[in-house]
Input
Amino acid sequence: MFVDYYELLEISPNANSETLERIFRYFAMRYHPDNQQTGNEARFSEIVEAHNVLRDPVKRAQYDISYREHAGERLKLVEEASDPKGVEKDALVQAKLLSLLYVKRRQDVGNPGIGDVELERLLGCPPEHLDFHLWYMKAKGWIARIENGTIAITVEGVDRADSELRRDTSTRLLSRD
Output
């Protein structure tokens, strides 16, 4: 897991060695385990590790490469979070997933599940994206993994699908008038 040493030390990635040393001394005194008021051994260890990497020019250069890669990932996260259509797309995938599992349960109560790979194909959703939806819907109690390892809709999921259908139908009826 990536640790942002600059954030940990509360300094800029452009900070010079003097600033790094000054801030390190401040945090080292503050979090040293011998400090009765603010001592924190775990935090102190993190501060020492960050300092040891950032004070060494070679280690810092290597760290900065990872830091820039991580910054790119954060930028992607911000861009995706800024897209108002993202949540709408997720809601559509979840509605389709519930609908597929609803129909499968209705068609074959004794064998109501659909496998992960088949769900990916039916939804046109990559596995890493589908994992989020499966996690969320399992946590809500709308779907469950059954004995044979496939995913099936639960009673709560049927109720959810039914309520979504009713809301969608009433919205369409109201918008035609």
